[in-house]
């Protein structure tokens, strides 16, 4: 016999922390993707977060689905969840590619579900268009360094910042090293352990000089 899940304050807070994940997924995939978070505190009004709900006609307070109940019971019985994508149809007949994952709180307690529904009934070129840069407007490309080790991440970030500073006419040659160090500091790169060593070697200055810059930056940060 299925029962509602008794929620603690911690359970509610844990589930609400997933809301930003739903927004992030929907933002990445685009308007043809519905993202839903269900709460197991109330099966009758389980939808506590939904983005692009028009694809299934649902809104906040909608009930859990029959498949959702089955997944919840399977998890309660086995403690195992293996998300797999599947195809289904919405109420209007639209073809959806979906996946569902149990969300766990403290002590691995099942508190809800994350569901992603991609509406494939739209023309494929229209779907693809939402995943590509819009050539009709100015699109800002962001530099991001993907690497398998921290040394490469630091090196690439350092190279990028050096290029930025060297192309900035407002930075004098005397202030170049400090400006480079400041941008790396502002970008959080010094959170990686070997940054100080790599910066000092690349810029040809001592680690003590780098530490001096960092103390200045941290002092300014605390004042502001």
UniProtKB/TrEMBL annotation:
It comes from Vibrio amylolyticus. InterPro entries: DauR-like (IPR039446), DauR-like_HTH (IPR039445), YheO (IPR013559). Residues 15-121 form the YheO-like domain. This is PAS domain-containing protein. Residues 158-215 form the Transcriptional regulator DauR-like HTH domain. It holds the Pfam family PAS_6.
């Amino acid at each position: 016999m299925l029962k509602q899940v008794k929620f603690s304050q911690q359970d509610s807070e844990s589930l609400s922390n997933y809301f930003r994940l739903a927004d992030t997924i929907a933002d990445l995939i685009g308007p043809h993707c519905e993202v839903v978070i269900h709460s197991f505190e109330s099966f009758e009004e389980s939808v506590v977060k939904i983005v692009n709900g028009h694809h299934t006609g649902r809104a906040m307070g909608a009930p859990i689905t029959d498949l959702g109940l089955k997944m919840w019971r399977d998890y309660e019985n086995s403690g195992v969840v293996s998300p797999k994508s599947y195809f289904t149809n919405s109420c209007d007949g639209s073809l959806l590619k979906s996946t569902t994952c149990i969300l766990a709180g403290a002590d691995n307690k099942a508190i809800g579900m994350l569901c992603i529904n991609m509406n494939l009934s739209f023309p494929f070129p229209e779907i693809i268009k939402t995943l590509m840069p819009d050539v009709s407007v100015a699109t800002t490309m962001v530099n991001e360094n993907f690497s398998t080790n921290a040394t490469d991440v630091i090196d690439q970030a350092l190279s990028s910042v050096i290029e930025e500073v060297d192309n900035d006419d407002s930075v004098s040659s005397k202030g170049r090293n400090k400006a480079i160090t400041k941008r790396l500091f502002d970008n959080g790169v010094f959170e990686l352990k070997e940054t100080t060593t790599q910066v000092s070697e690349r810029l040809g200055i001592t680690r003590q000089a780098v530490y001096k810059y960092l103390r200045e930056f941290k002092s300014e940060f605390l004042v502001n």
